[in-house]
Amino acid sequence: MDKVQELYDAAFAVLPYLRASTDPFELSSLSKHHGLSAGDRLRADAEEADRRDAAILRLREALANFGAG
């Protein structure tokens, strides 16, 4: 995969996690946890944080690779 495509793909993977202060507030994150136990809510939040972290790390690596070449 070339560096431009890698950077492009990594940037698009991060987009779902970005929010602007002008974005409307959504209650969907609250409703998806409705009916779950406290432990299940914590596990779901941790899994979401792991996915977000992985996307950010992927973008950082793609940026470093792009800048190095």
What does this structure look like?
With 69 residues, the protein is mainly α. The chain has one domain (3-17, 28-68). The chain has helices spanning 3-14, 28-31, 38-68. Helix 1 runs antiparallel to helix 3. The longest helix is centred in the C-terminal third of the chain and has 31 residues, at 38-68. The protein is elongated and about 50 Å long.
List keywords for this structure.
single chain, 69 residues, 3 helices
Class inferred from helices and paired strands? mainly alpha
Beta content: under 5%
Q: How many discrete domains? A: 1
Radius of gyration: 16 Å
User: What is the residue-mean pLDDT, rounded to a whole number?
Assistant: 86
SSE series? HHH
Shape: elongated
Give the N-to-C terminal Cα separation. 13 Å
| Helical residues, percent | 55-70%
The tally of helices reads 3
* Poorly predicted runs of 5 or more residues: none
Please tally the β strands and state the result. Answer: 0
Largest sheet descriptor: none
